[in-house]
């Protein structure tokens, strides 16, 4: 990559260029694009990011600039931010130091304009604004004087360079004529030029002395402004922490005085003042950046279809659906069952086991979240040990299994004769998996490598599920669920999380796939980004944002779902989700709409046309649809859920002890069990023991891998861990590689043979 040569820095110019910034001991120095403008030094991963994603900014008005060696220098603003930078050469480093010093001086002058005290105007500010005018006049006069002195220095510098070069040429000529005796004229010329050089140097010295004297006369005010800014920042941090403590005490007092209703579903609307805007970005490893969302114009509009479609008895789209039926008397569940004459109309499943409906109430332990999280800004949270005070008594494997809470949607999808109708159910299932997260601000336990979790609901619900932690760094979990109703769900999810100061973003990486036996339809999709807001002050609340494409790899059908991020400026309902189901030719057949925390509805499209241009000049599609029908609705939370981590009925049963599970099952994890029982101090101690044990096992595995790699017969990699129940598989349909279930777990459980399982707890 060719780099443009940076210009010589001058006061007031924007200075840009590449520098190497120290990130951590693993990655070392990383190349970043730096921009110096208006007294602020900002950096980006590349020049293309300048329009939308700033990775960090430091104010030079309060910063110290120190040179370490020929290429390295450090910029720090008193401990809150420190940039260790390295230039490509000593000349380049000097250009940046000069530009930074000039920008710092200018920033200090700009800051002095807001100084509430002056040497010449000490009186209280009058109402007419004369005090502000006096300060402005003084600052302008000082700037003009300093500017004239700088011009004098520049002129003297040019003269010194000119006369110095002439003097050097004369000395060279004198050296060449030393052999001959005719040196009188040359000596006279050298003497004259030396005199000019001495005069110019004296002028330079005098100009420097005047500039230094003038700068020293104002240094007290600059120093005072600097100390005032630092004191103000310290007071602001103390006030912010005190406010967070007071808010926590008030919230605890409120919970003690009354019980929150289980229908409370929108903390964002009740606390708009706590929703932050654009956060300070200090990310080094991630490309995703979140801002307060502006209102996004809808890509399509739905209007009621012409009455002729309601009266028509024909099947306009070729589906086994409701065109000739009364919209008021038919629901989507009945339609789905009616579309498959071979399926029974009624099917009653009686549970074979009475499962628990309560867990011990969450203890009211106080711990300042900001005191821990302030040191984690921009870091990967999976690599940072966190106390159980911020957790919930479930592992990430159990949270993955919660995706099956609305398994009935896949049961109904398996009975559909139409692939497009089946797509509606699959899309609703993808949305339903987020409904359990609306109040769940607790962090699940990070599973240990080799940890498993089984969810055997074969007799209750007709499916059984198995999860295993197949990788430690990066943490990855594989999941496999098989139903008697003719569907298989498999997924491999890797979570990347970053704390960004005001909010926490969680980016699930990986793919989810659903396969149906009868139709052989193969669906795949990915998850959207989860954001936890109000980390510092206010009530924590969760938002889901992004887009999902559910693809049927057999037929080419597709459903594009859009999760709208929360926005102050939007007039839509919060947590809105919209989607359109299209066939392989791009023709739209169904529209889905609703919210990811309450319900989803579908409408069948009878006709589509191009409508008016939107606010951004995009032409929006108008869909004429039949009346919307409910396809999914969230189950109510159990009574007292606000005291039980807002667990759903399924979540309450996930950590219930069961006989015959594998020794690696999450139910057997001691720190998680202690937390559920309310023994948080013991849980924290046990959690540290388990994590240290895992580190010892990893180091031993690395040593064995090194030994194996040194032999000619076989090589190994330290992270080449072989999962117990899953194997890597290259899926030809989706083109993705993921861990799939290889079999053997349920047979081992039936035989009670767990000798091959590692000891991880």
TrEMBL record:
It comes from the Eukaryota. This is Uncharacterized protein. It comes from Chaenocephalus aceratus (Blackfin icefish).
